[in-house]
Design brief:
Blueprint lengths: L3 H7 L4 H4 L5 H15 L6 E5 L5 H8 L3 E6 L2 H10 L4 E4 L11 E6 L10 H14 E12 L10 E7 L2 E11 L5 E11 L4 E11 L3 H11 L2 E6 L14 E7 L6
Parallel strand pairs: 1-2, 1-4, 2-3, 4-5
Antiparallel strand pairs: 5-11, 6-7, 7-8, 8-9, 10-11
Helix pairs in contact: 3-4
Amino acid sequence: MTAQNQLYLDLSRYYDQFCSDIDYAEQSEFAQRAWQCFSNSGGRAFLDLACGTGQLLKLMEDKGFSISGLDNSQEMLDQTAKRCPDATLLLSDLAEFERHHEYDLITSFLYSMHYSHPLAAFQQTLCKAYQALKPGGAFVFDAVDKNGIANDTGVVSELALDAEHLTFRSRWFYSGQGDVLDLFLSITRESNHETQTWDDHHRMTAITIPNIKQLMQQAGFETTILERDYARLSEWDGKSSNVIMVGTKPLLEV
């Protein structure tokens, strides 16, 4: 039985369990350190792009930030509202949100920036983030260089809930040409009475790290590239394919 649309709607209630191996506490510590090092805007207003169910938002709220979250799924935002009842929540695609000089720190982790496709949408998201920051604010996101995509079998995780067994598979594929990074997702839900499968294919943006830096600078950011290591702030060695990009909005715009 195939239940593409319904399981997409239902995914939000399984999201936390599928993401149980993600260290959101480490991410929140990293985000705070990045704010301390790169933001000079004088406040603690925080926006998380592609916030999911709000796990990072809650941790940042506990650190004293005023929190806002954006996602293009109302179901995810409904889960976030339960976790973070005081959060301001925005239903929008990454490239379409409109905010002006509101935030001291914006993040987008788990490679979510790559969902801005095609390349023009990626560039537009950078411009929207720049516009949304206060002067001196910082935008922090992780990214992968298209030439470092492994094209392997991906990641498989399993989850047992009561009488249900769920299997989640995801993998990236890059053809070696162009700006299309394919993300393939598959979820199987098995119970005593039936098996449901849901398959999805997302077109993400394939891009190189130097090109990201160029686009950030074109948007107006002062740009720093770090290793994708949430345990510390470490300058990129120029070799690894997974990085964290930091864009700071100048206090005095040219």
